[in-house]
Design goal:
single chain; elongated
Amino acid sequence: IWDVLSSQTAVDFLRKELGDRSSWAPRLASGQLRLSELLCRLLDRCLSPDLRLTDGLGGDNMTAVLVLFLPMLVTAQSALAGCTRAVRAVGPPRLMPAKLAQIAA
C-alpha cells in the first residue's frame, strides 16, 4: 500500500469514505457502513492495472486493518439496543417482584 499511496492520501481517502464520526455507529448497525467494503476500495485503488507499466508496484500482497474507536456512550447504547432485540426475540427475563422493584428504584 505504502509504495502506491502516501499515509496522508490513505487517511484522506478513509476519512472521506467514513464520513461524519457521529454517523458511524448507526451506519455500522444498519449495515450502511461496511468496513470490509471500504478497505476493499482502498486496496483496489492500490492495485496495478498492469504490472509491466508500474514496474511491479501494486502487485504485492496487501492487507489493511481499520479500527474505529466509538464513543463509550454510543457503545453502551448499541449494547442496550442489542439487549432490547434479544429480549424481544426470547421474551423478558422472569424476575421476582422484589427484584423488579429494586431495578426500578
